[in-house]
Amino acid sequence: MGKNEEKSVINIAILGAGTVGGGVYKLLSGQKDEIRQQAGADICVKKVLVRDASKERPGYDRAVLTSDWADIVNDDDIDIVVELMGGIEPAKTYVLEALSKGKQVVTANKDLLAQYGEEIGEAANMNSADVLYEAAVAGVIPIIRPLKQSLAGAEITEIMGIVNGTTNYILTQMSETGMSYEDALARATELGYAEADPTADVEGLDAGRKVAIMASNAFHTKVVFSQVYTEGITKITADDIRYAREFGYVIKLLGVARNTDSGIEVKVHPMLIPQNHSLAGVGGSFNAVFLHGKAMDDVTLVGRGAGEMPTATAVLGDIIDVCRDILFDCCGRVRRNCYKKLRVKDISECESKFFIRMQAKDRPGVLANIAGVLGNNGVGISQVVQRSGNGDTAELVIITDRVAEKNFNDATEILGGMSVVKEISGVIRVYDNV
Amino acid sequence: MGKNEEKSVINIAILGAGTVGGGVYKLLSGQKDEIRQQAGADICVKKVLVRDASKERPGYDRAVLTSDWADIVNDDDIDIVVELMGGIEPAKTYVLEALSKGKQVVTANKDLLAQYGEEIGEAANMNSADVLYEAAVAGVIPIIRPLKQSLAGAEITEIMGIVNGTTNYILTQMSETGMSYEDALARATELGYAEADPTADVEGLDAGRKVAIMASNAFHTKVVFSQVYTEGITKITADDIRYAREFGYVIKLLGVARNTDSGIEVKVHPMLIPQNHSLAGVGGSFNAVFLHGKAMDDVTLVGRGAGEMPTATAVLGDIIDVCRDILFDCCGRVRRNCYKKLRVKDISECESKFFIRMQAKDRPGVLANIAGVLGNNGVGISQVVQRSGNGDTAELVIITDRVAEKNFNDATEILGGMSVVKEISGVIRVYDNV
Lengths: 434, 434
What we know:
The structure is a homodimer. Chain A is of the alpha/beta class.
């Protein structure tokens, strides 16, 4: 095969024996012949790092378990460290130490990459090492490799991703059954799709980390999680979803990265997208990433964004690829390459169309008043629906034209203070292709 | 960067100055800085092979045009040959000669790969050379690299692709407007989506070549185009589409590759797929590939399958990847790897559900007669619709249970000979997930 022809076994260490770590261990044990053919050598799991090595772990060979990182980092026979612990520390220290010892790294750690991607990328470059992380974004969906390789010349200008399965499950439930956010969240928790503390998912933080990673790779510029604007789905109501449908839209939580002439936009927020958009039909716990580039037009990639085996499959693909690099002595071949210094726009500078739902006094002239305030702030109206409610209240739902967020916020602040406006019940951005 | 650090320019030759060749030339000229950063070196188009080098070609630097292959193959400074001529000869000779001279190859030639993929792969392996061909299947959609790398450990069992834009455009038109096949074909020709002789597209031959290439890569076994069963869309009628919709299906021309315990299935034919299947909404000239593997579940990839710039984008991704291999001295790193010898099943051994539409005499007992013939041949009925037509004719539409093709064919042959059956108007396979 390659140049390291004498190398017939590649030893790896897996950090973590949780869901994904267990899946990778299972896949590696279950299809040894297939993997040898693909990778060009046998892949041997020499160590698995766990917190408590004495704990009974069904399915694991007891001899590989260790709770001591030194057993791994100081073992020169271990070629690849597969980091599946998650979180910043000690994962960051372990990854950097592994690289400095000449080991290759595969990781699925979005928290780490979204915050310290540059540091890790530079350590990899310095050591001519591989750091592969296909599983860190959207599970089994091939997205990092397409960004770095297949679509390397595509000049991507827009990425929109449904990259959090928990929130997509909740919104799909709300949309299909009309249930409230609270009920849908409870159901997601019951089924194990949401964690006991769902904050990172429902507030868009998890999606935000994936946006930072995708934007860095697509636009070749450093983007860290703290630069990503995040807004979650906790305020979305069944009414919002119903009105959105009436206007021909569905509501999704989207991670958005755009490369514009005035800087890049990186944000996570709920969005109304047209029912015929390729992301609209992506339901349940599926993930999807939509890419647009001038030359390539639209590409949409759909698959499982989480789960033991889908994520493990993505990790395994990376491990096999690193094996090829080891055998061909070309580790570091595809490197972090953030050679640009692009400005990240503040959310107030971004532009969008908006859906705004409000309760107003049901009397003549109110719509004219409201439209006037919007107009005075440069907010055009694209569509409007007004419904009489109980007593003297009317529900007013407006979709605006494209407008700078700042103008829109100025307008809604004024609206909120008007005596005829009882409540602004919902504000959601609306897709508008750039 | 890599080991060939002194190498600051990589010279390529493009064979062909047609649509895709022109697109690649344009992309390479238009974003030199971006490409240098991505590829690690400048990419210089040293030669473009054309039939007539004296012809005026706007946009091309006259000095690079040549009609003499010897100018390219004997030029040791040319590192990569980008074959975009199409057809078997002389493309095959040129590709093999380029490999034997130590050059790397990028090609979009599905005809060549579907027939001589093994020969070319072996020549590449022997010369430790790259042969990359992402653009040969489904244009800009990343599919070859996911099969060989990202999903290398995914044990894919099923591939279903809308991999021909012409036929998808025709079927989408028929479905949306109710127009006939002939009218939709005429419209496609008018718009340039169909060629003057549309045979390769409408008879499923183009899709069949792509199926052979995908199956080889996914299942690691030699599959050539002649082994792929092909059936086109020329017999599909507006009535078929209307009834399909009534049953909850849309009709698509699909390239199918399945890995079953009894051998692999490779085929192209129209198919009824459920309206909520991820391929159902892929309209117009878009392509899409649906993949299923036990561990990874479903993955769907959607994008432009043809056109100057989308296809050129895929070719450019390959060129950049080969440059990295040259700079890291690791060409041949991802090789053709058909280490299995899997049997290709004959279509008669495959199983399917069927949609069958027929005109029968409208008199008591006819349905019982027909159902009896189906039952005697082991063909179960899943759904049936009967409509009285003009005079003494009734239209009968049946969706069967899953059955071996042989049994179904035996049954329809008997039905066709029955005096109460006036005509079998349509027979189309129905999706049934395995």
